[in-house]
Amino acid sequence: MATMEFHCDGHIYPGQVELKVENLKRSILFYQEVIGFRILEQTETKALLTANGQTSLLTIEQPESVIQKQPHTTGLYHFALLLPNRTELGKILNHFIKLDLPLGASDHLVSEALYLNDPDGNGIEIYADRPAATWQWENNQVIMVTDPLDGDSLLKEVDGEDWQGLPADTIMGHIHLHVSDLAKDAEFYCKGLGFDIVSKYGGQALFISTGGYHHHIGLNTWAGVGAPKPSEHSVGLNWYSLIYPNGEAIQAAITRLQKIGAVVKKENGFFLTKDPSGHNIRLAGC
Q1: Sign of the CA dihedral 237, 172, 221, 121?
Q2: Confidence of residue 2 (pLDDT cuts 50, 70, 90)
Q3: Helix/strand/coil for 3
Q4: Taking the domains of the chain in order of start, what are their residue ranges?
Q5: Predicted local confidence at residue 180, as pLDDT
Q6: CB within 8 Å of 41: residues ≥ 6 apart
Q7: What are this entry's molecular-function GO terms (predicted)?
Q8: Does domain 4-181+193-242 have CATH number 3.40.309.10?
Q9: Which residues, 6+ apart, have CB-to-CB distance to 255 below 8 Å?
Q10: Per-residue pLDDT reduced to its tens digit, 232-250
Q11: Model-level pTM?
Q12: % of the chain exceeding 70 in pLDDT
């Protein structure tokens, strides 16, 4: 069973992601035919993509003067779609194999995951959690590894069922970002936004969450310590949203952010802030 209880009232978790892409038609085709999204709304320059037909998980936009993804900058490492169970992960693995896609695959103990890139090089993880009761903790740190995935075992879960796209209860499980300074970003996300550090990967990555999830957000310096922000015109992450339990929780986060010197503004009905590495964040309520 999926661990959706970590993405509901009482927790802070990612809700939506908006990406800038070079070619909207190309990206729509990929996200429909390869990933299995459906179109919720579409204009000439933007498409809102959905799994359940009601809410958008991913928005893709083709801005004017867009340029290709720049290496060695902050930005998106991957966004991660959480499937409701292992069978659905087996189905999409079988689908990817039929398409002969280049894939990464890992067993993290807490989850099993597939990795690929969209046509612009934006990273995508698609995963299923193992039951939270099986996760191992030591000194308040969840134990995660990167072991080979048992793909044969996953495919046996399918039992002849065809892939039908993303299941309706797919959610945005986590987001993983390239940052320039782990300490500064950790302060922003923990002291400001209200997350807890639940895993450290050497001195190069932190995994943070609320409520004892293995991670709602990953932060790493794999693009280089002190990596610059990408150009405003670069493809990649435009913004992502964090869902708070209610308006009071959002106001408390705003107060904490302002205490550490972060700027929060209200625009088009949303509270917006920016982490020290330049990622735009919308603070939203359930």
Answers
A1: negative
A2: very low
A3: coil
A4: 4-181+193-242
A5: 98
A6: 47, 48, 56
A7: dioxygenase activity
A8: no
A9: none
A10: 999 999 999 999 999 999 9
A11: 0.97
A12: 99
